């Protein structure tokens, strides 16, 4: 049956025709497709917007990808337990923390002169704590040359505590809490600073004696201590930084004409213009300069005292003791500083932490505290 276009009136003889051949309008009786809804067919975007949104999507995916990589690939910084294990693994450093080297404890029994009152007070305190037996009075020589001396013998607890000539009072340290600076990259290595609070692990029973705390207040007069350490990301593992690690990093970055300055850590990487300018003020890692030889110079410069009195003052060229200034030379080897007085053998100082050093001059051993 013929149909006529309702728009232009043209007659159409084709039975299954859907549109008018003249004007293209739908013919009567042709079902009209439902208009697409927002759910059935999205509105097409202009090409410009597609490109713009596509670029944003790529950027977001890149950022997310990088973040996911860091979370899944980069190792997290050690927690308090893991950092405790790292610190205790350094046997030499652990021994400095938990062992006393203010006397030659390898000698047993030991006899001291009557006039050596400082040593007698300390050994008497150890005797009260059960590390030594009470002093025995002995006399050497005869006549005009007789001399009263005191002999001390270590108990079983004392023998157990002696290690490498030092008196050790704990097995190590355990961290109570730790916080980190934001990891930063210098040369091809990543560093982070840890600040932590710790206590002694498995302290000996005699440490709690009041006489010991009174005689050695710095190390044994309290139960909690604060310190810091520097960690370096090496082969996907965080490791404690040694002086050698820092020297190698400095040398590597110097070859790239970029000075490795620890005072800049904590302030972001320098740009090309500031790399040749005057270094900025000390930043987060300023304290590290005093911990390692070769970075910041001599760690014992300044005033040091015991029992509230200044004993030594060190300048770059002099040692001042008893009001007398003497020219000296320094030999810095990691945490040991050998001070040579001109024409004499010299004395070795060991850095315990930022504010404590130990002096070793043979039989004379003394722990000193920094005087601000």
Notes on the structure:
- With 372 residues, this protein is of the alpha+beta class.
- The chain folds into three domains: 80-241, no CATH class; 246-296, no CATH class; 302-371.
- The chain has helices at residues 47-73, 80-89, 91-98, 117-129, 156-161, 210-215, 217-220, 243-255; strands spanning 3-4, 11-12, 99-100, 110-113, 136-140, 147-152, 162-163, 166-168, 172-180, 184-186, 189-201, 225-234, 237-240, 302-306, 309-314, 318-321, 324-333, 336-341, 347-353, 356-361, 364-371.
- Strands 14-15-16-17-18-19-20-21 form an eight-stranded antiparallel barrel. Strands 9, 10, 11, 12 and 13 form a five-stranded antiparallel beta sheet that branches. The chain has a three-stranded antiparallel beta sheet with strand order 3-8-7.
- A hairpin with a 2-residue loop joins strand 12 (225-234) and strand 13 (237-240).
- The chain is elongated and about 155 Å long.
- The N and C termini lie far apart (113 Å).
């Amino acid at each position: 049956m013929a149909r006529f276009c309702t728009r232009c009136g043209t007659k159409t003889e084709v039975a299954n025709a859907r549109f008018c051949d003249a004007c293209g309008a739908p013919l009567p009786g042709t079902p009209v497709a439902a208009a697409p809804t927002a759910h059935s067919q999205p509105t097409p975007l202009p090409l410009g917007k597609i490109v713009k949104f596509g670029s944003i999507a790529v950027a977001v995916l890149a950022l997310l990808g990088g973040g996911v990589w860091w979370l899944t690939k980069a190792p997290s910084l050690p927690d308090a337990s893991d950092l405790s294990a790292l610190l205790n693994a350094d046997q030499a450093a652990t021994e400095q923390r938990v062992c006393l080297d203010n006397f030659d404890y390898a000698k047993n029994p030991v006899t001291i002169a009557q006039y050596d009152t400082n040593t007698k007070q300390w050994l008497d305190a150890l005797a009260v704590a059960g590390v030594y037996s009470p002093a025995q009075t002995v006399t050497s020589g005869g006549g005009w040359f007789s001399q009263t001396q005191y002999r001390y013998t270590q108990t079983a607890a004392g023998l157990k505590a002696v290690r490498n000539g030092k008196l050790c009072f704990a097995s190590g340290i355990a961290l109570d809490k730790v916080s980190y600076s934001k990891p930063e990259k210098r040369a091809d290595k990543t560093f982070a600073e840890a600040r932590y609070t710790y206590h002694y692990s498995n302290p000996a029973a005699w440490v709690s004696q009041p006489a010991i705390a009174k005689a050695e207040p710095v190390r044994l007069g309290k139960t909690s201590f604060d310190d810091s350490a520097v960690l370096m990301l090496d082969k996907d593992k965080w490791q404690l930084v040694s002086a050698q690690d820092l020297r190698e990093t400095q040398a590597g970055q110097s070859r790239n004409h970029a000075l490795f300055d620890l005072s800049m850590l904590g302030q972001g990487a320098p740009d090309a213009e500031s790399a040749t300018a005057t270094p900025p003020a000390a930043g987060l890692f300023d304290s590290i300069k005093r911990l390692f030889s070769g970075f910041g110079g001599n760690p014992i410069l300044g005033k040091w005292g015991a029992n509230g009195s200044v004993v030594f003052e060190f300048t770059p060229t002099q040692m001042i003791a008893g009001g007398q200034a003497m020219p000296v030379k320094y030999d810095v080897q990691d945490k040991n500083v050998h001070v040579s007085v001109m024409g004499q053998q010299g004395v070795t100082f060991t850095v315990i932490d930022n504010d404590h050093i130990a002096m070793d001059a043979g039989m004379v051993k003394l722990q000193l505290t920094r005087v601000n």
